[in-house]
Amino acid sequence: MRPLLALLFSVLVLASCSKSPPPAGRWEGAFDDGTTFVAARLEIEPDGTVRVSAPDVVDPSVASEDDKATMRQNMSARLVGGWGEVAPRPMDFDGTTFRKPGGIAPQIDWDAKSKAMTLYVYIGTRPVIKIPLHPVGDFTDNPWGS
To answer: Would 120 be classed as within a structural domain?
Structure first.
């Protein structure tokens, strides 16, 4: 009886350690702090391969609201125009965090409970920018929304 209980316990422990499958779907979002603009798209296939694009511009000379609106339009156009060239790539996924294979730095975070997806964007030596993404059925031409 003891060997059977030990075997059952081992199976339960291993099952509790299994990784969650990556969430398949599409997400988009954007970041704008007045000088840094990022438009982002993310697509995760059922097999876990990831397509992600996040063109960015850092321009401290952008001052007026018209200039900011123009910059957001330009970033949206870059995102849409370049999406066809984005190749899928494998990522390691531990149930919460996506990383480049063998990498340490998080690239994407997934909170299964709240269904929240966050893209990490690294620009030079600046601190990481965390962009909350929202799920979409089809990508739009404007990740900033209306």
So the answer is: yes
> Model-level pTM?
0.85
Q: Is the pLDDT of residue 121 over 60?
A: yes
Nearby residues of 3 by Cβ (< 8 Å), 6 or more positions away: none
Domain count, the chain: 1
* 14 part of a folded domain: no
Could you tell me the residue range of the domain that residue 95 belongs to?
22-136
